[in-house]
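User: Can you predict the 3D structure for this chain?
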Amino acid sequence: MIDNQSLSSFMKDFFGYDTFKGEQLEIIKHVISGGNAFVLMPTGGGKSLCYQLPALVMEGTAIVISPLIALMKNQVDAIRGFVAGNEGIAHFLNSSLNKAQIAAVREDLLMGKTKLLYVAPESLTKEENIALLKELKVSFYAVDEAHCISEWGHDFRPEYRRIRTLVDEIHPAPIIALTATATLKVQSDILKTLGIPDAKIFKSSFNRPNLYYEVRDKVEPEKDIIKFIKQNPGKSGIIYCLSRKKVEEMAQLLAINGIPALPYHAGLDAKVRTENQDAFLMEEVKVIVATIAFGMGIDKPDVRFVIHYDIPKSIEGYYQETGRAGRDGLEGRCITYYSYKDIRKLEKFMQGKPVSEQEIGRQLLLETVAYAESNECRRKLLLNYFGEDYTQDNCHNCDNCVHPRPKFDGRKEMSLVIKLILSLPENFKIEHLACILAGNANALIKSYNHDKLVLFGAGKEHSEKFWCTVIHQGMILHLLSKNIESYGLISVTDKGLEFLKEPWTIMLSEDRVFSEGTGDDEEDEETAAANAAMRSSGGGGDPVLLSMLKDLRKDMARKLKLQPWVIFTDPSLEDMSLSYPLTIDELKNCQGVGEGKANKFGREFMDLIRKYVEENEISRPDDFVVKSMATKSEGKIYIIQCIDRRMDLEDIAAARDMEFDELLKQIEDIVEFGTKLNLDYYIKANIDQDQIDDIYDYFAQEAESDSVKDAIDALGPDYEEFEVRLVRLKFLSEVAN
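Assistant: Here is the predicted structure, written as structure tokens:
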């Protein structure tokens, strides 16, 4: 057995560290002595050293089972960096290697050069790899990211559950399982599946005192994220999104706004993924936008922030991902955006899965909702989830402790919810129940005659969002239940019935009301109408500036001999009076402006706004406007190219497999965004010249807006709608854009 002094000397020689952290020394000695081990250590605690150092000093080759190709490469590069002049000391064996590279790995293994071999669980199952490993002397097996074993873990991989069988087939040897996150249930599952019930368990505290935890309402998250990063220049960070599409969109949006960022997800080519990861590790870019796979074991100690654009599917996942911040013990900010709409999306993904999987997923989601909506210390909640007590009342490093919210006893409100559910002959969704209590007689409520209920409007002093939050809390407390298979209908549990008989104290927050969602989904008609009304009302803008902008528009219209609306519509001017745009990028973000109009007419308006802002010492809204991505999708670019080639619109519609009217709407979007299209070839072939002149003159001389309906009413029944729309497009392209 190697003594402590020798191990310290090896560590200094190989890794350059003077002292061991926490229980590292005890774990390393246990592994070298041939014992099985289960190591639960937070991200940044030094898990990898617990198997790397034993592998280097023991006879034979240690097999490290690791879930990600990127992780293997990172670890192998690190080991080779520590042990100069011996490239063969560490290798990985996975699908990224070609035949020549596999042959080189095989040669080093058989010659006894390789002390650490990293393999993916899928690679371990291949017959040729099993045959190769049988020829080696295996010192021990290290199962990294061992939570992947458990169906209760946040990254379940079926191949992980075959590891014990494969170990017995290749060459039985001690096993060390390592993870940064595992509940008691997951821990038990890992030990059972790996067949190491005798394993010595090493647990470090889950507390990361340097991490600041915060949950934000998901309203304009993109703008908020860009603002946060710009307020923290030069700091490295990871932004996690659940979908590959959102990863790509977010990376593009950050780049457009002057923040170098790269995407990382499984849909990218392996070479691109590796290049992007290396660019982040080498400080060539400060921000990586990724799906949850990124970051496992990545050795970057100075990640200063981890942002979750989407709420994670489990607390385990959340803890693991936030743990990638501040691994050097310095500042780490963990910001999560939350709306209940995201939870509903995750629930939809569960539909159709086996009942047992749904039940597990539902439990994990409920725990995530409980964390997001709680007013308690977030550190206390996290540690408690992993079975660790946190005895302090205030951690002074989470949003709930730094900015505590007033609380109230919600017995009365919860009782009202339960009474309403029990009074209905069938079950309904959260939003429907909230509308009844808030007294919102929308079309759906009226269709069920629920506006006639005794309890309709019984909680009208509160908003629908408030009641949604109360119902969410009811589910967290197991007073209410939601059936995912039955489209999320809410029912009362036995515990809820007990509560109604003898209510006990339930502390709810007065103002933590999370939104039901953001702009990821299209607005429903009612919301769109409300938003449009709000935008066109002029409310919230600067009335003096608005009057000056209208005067300027009138003068320009007179000089250019145009109708004022052709230059900018009233809603556009109202947006300007609200946001004080000073650049083309800011101006084209105003409603109904677009790049074409901004470039053609915008200079005088921006000059007026700049002068007004300076003279009146106006502080613009955070002096911060997010540049939006161009809205020309691939389909719209195709349409523009076809029109440039003078293709008939019917042929373009057929090629895109769309109705003619649908194509016309797409063309209208393109022109209204500011692109100039020449449709003369098609218009002249399909509309009489006299009609073209009449419609054009109407828009040039009489029209008070670009409304097609108003034009048809004014021109009379001799003009077809499609004719008016086409000539309107000609007019806008030639005059407005």
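The domain at 211-354 is CATH 3.40.50.300 (Rossmann fold). Residues 43 and 248 are 27 Å apart (CA to CA).
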